[in-house]
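Interim report, section 4.2 (structural modelling).
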Amino acid sequence: MHADRAEAVQVPGKPNLDGLETKWDAAWASSGVYAFDRTAPRERVFSIDTPPPTVSGSLHMGSVFGYVQTDAVARYQRMAGKAVFYPMGWDDNGLPTERRAQNYFGVHCDPSLPYDPDFTPPATEGIGADGKKVKRTEACSRRNFVELCIELITADEVVFEATWRRIGLSVDWSLLYQTISDEARATSQRAFLHNLARGEAYQAEAPTLWDVSFATAVAQAELEDRERPGAYHRLAFHRVDDAGAVTGDDVFIETTRPELLAACVALVAHPDDERYAPLFGTTVATPVFGVRVPVLAHELAEPDKGSGIAMICTFGDTTDVTWWRELELPTRAIIGRNGRIRTETPEWITAAGDDAVTAYETLAGKTVFSAQEQMVGLLRASGDLIGEPEPISHPVKFYEKGDKPLEIVTSRQWYFRNGGRDPELREMFAKRGTQLDWVPDHMRHRYQHWVDGLNGDWLVSRQRFFGVPIPIWYGVDADGEPDHDTVLVPDESALPVDPSSDTPPGYDESQRGAPGGFVGEADVLDTWATSSLTPQIACGWGRDDDLFARTFPMDLRPQGPEIIRTWLFDTIVRAHFEHGTLPWKRATINGWILDPDRKKMSKSTGNVVTPLALLENYGTDAVRYWSTSARPGTDTAFDEGQIKIGRRLAIKLLNASRFALNSGATDPDPAHITEALDRALVTRLAGVVATATAAFDAFDYARALEVTEAFFWDFCNDYLELVKGRAYGDDAEPADATLSARATLATALDTVLRLFAPFLPFVTEEVWSWWRPGSVHAAAWPTGEPPAWPTGTDDTVLAVAADVLGAIRHAKSDAKVSMKAPVATVVFTDSAERGAALEAAASDVVDAGVVTTLVVEQSDDDASPTAIEVTLDQTD
RNA sequence: GGGCGAUUAGCUCAGUUGGCCAGAGCGCUGCCUUUACAUGGCAGAUGUCGGGGGUUCGAGUCCCUCAUCGCCCACCA
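Predicted structure of the assembly:
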């Protein structure tokens, strides 16, 4: 080994993977290899709209899977010369944090309370007057509540960041953002105000899907169906003659929600349904209450469902809403926002007579469940329940985070236009979907399908507390009533604002709620209304114009398939309104992780594998290997075996590198690569580089990994064995052949480390540090193109040499002898070309196979197959 | 009911624009302590490419159809 290089090369005696994560994470943090170059012009920037994970303190397998795949792409882009803008964000705005703060501090928010700067949360448990332990919870203002939420998550986020650093993401942690930060709230409010000014945000009094336990409105995108038991109840409605008297003829309907009978506004059947055609336009009386309702026709009524005629209530389901709107029916709501039957008797019941009032009063204040029992009792008593309820199982709409079925209530809410009520706008958003590059391409159908199925605008107001406040106030009229048509807006320079504690321009706090004064909007924005602005938040829109110009529209949005309808679509909506562009060029959609039974891993099914133990046991690189083995967008079964393979690969990399470097392979100078076998190896490597590069350019990191890995194992098994002897040359005066082997080993090692760097950042960096300057992650992606490497050869020499070596091993394996066992003769019969190729590597083959005599014969016929006869030396 | 995807060795998966005997790894079997690695190495066996049609000289690959699984959507009285 050259003395001048011996100092530069420091190979540990027995390298291992332990501790590499801690060592290199700290080194990268201090050296700033992943820092974004703010001077880079837009065309050299690659910007990534990272999904901000919900801060929970724990890490899920699915997160590791998706983020690592994106990180591999980010690392490739960086090595390929891009200034990678790769921020991380924490999604700490919203319901999960709100719930945790309530439990942790024992508080709940009352937005009507004034801010108390000295507020301290109560002890969460105390001793009550009766001497028993009680859970304490105390009300506080919204601003106090938000302060407590922020206090809680700030502590959590320190731990969370440490956890995330373990998976080796090459994010620039200095760009970390929080969706509840002042900057994010200001961005969200600014965008809202712009939407308001342009008419893209509006308020409306409308039937709204309502979660009774959270007491908040929910949007179409947050719904999910759950199969629930129910029962068909067959009810008799009574026909009424022109004079208004009950005739004795009955009409039978079937319903799963008899408790809504008091909210019935009409019956409806299909216009072509001959059974009911004579009834259209007539009036019937509801059972028990005797409320007069019309019988109407509408094509949404399905003749073969139930009895073919349905009662319309305000509101039992979304079909009722459609009928109510299209048939211009009155609103007769009986369910309050608390999910109970309204206590005051409605006027249409009062108008129906004393019996109706008496009946209603037995329902008033009951929950939906008890009201149903009571109503069934009433119907049974009046003889209007026909037969017994028939149990069924049917899908019921739920808020995805809720545990009670949704009700539909009428309320004043804020909406963003999204094409759900405007065919032209819908067409525009469909077009945006076609302009986006999708990886994999078929994911575009999911977007298209969602846009096609939109049936209303985006409901963005939420009756929650920890979120971005809707930044407006309403005027209060002379009678002290809020006038929702008088909307007061803040100055943009004042953002973020909280209307419950800040005042609108031109007013002071004494005017809050006073006649002629103002009242703050109590609602907050849906978390998606803020998350849909992650490109604007991360890129510094309205805050740092220079940064924004260098990074927006972004290059990449990586995310899961389940939030195409929410995060992806909503982000496109906001960017379209605000900037008239797509928010990014391309979206990569990752697949699911399935458990071995092919079920999606999720918390609710309890089949989650926690990644932390895997990271501990096998090392981060091993887990990353498994994650990046999965094709983009492809669901993958969790397979611990694959992680073990990753660990083996990382260890192999350590050992092969150690061997190559200890053989003197430190100078990759291509001028020394003169031997045919070596040139063949380099030629093959150039092919691998080309394939891996093309794969990465198509965002197919898995293929890049696959070809690199295949090359590396062949390299270890064949090439390394073949050149072992030659590389161990005389160090004082190395022969050209020795120099050639060493230069080739160095070239291959140098290149393989770069090729693996996006996947196995820790072990590649470790090996790189033994002999190369700087960080492998700041090194250039290999090109493998002339003039750097020798050309004019193909890899036939390597292929033939590997074939012969394989045949020799085969013979030894069959004979059950050591691979060190000597071989008397090898007779190789093949074409002239392959024969010549073997001759060129003859000494290496003879050396590696311990062969005494190697004979090369030319076959008569070029088409005849290769024949390799191996005769073992029997003397010992 | 609609849309999208999947179905290849016991298991997990590759198979790029249709082209010679269909591949990898794991697992399995046998052998080898070989001075980079026993956290190893070498070798071996294993497939009606979900079923059925069709196009083609030729189909795992293209078309039709059926089945199963998964995800998403739907106005679920």
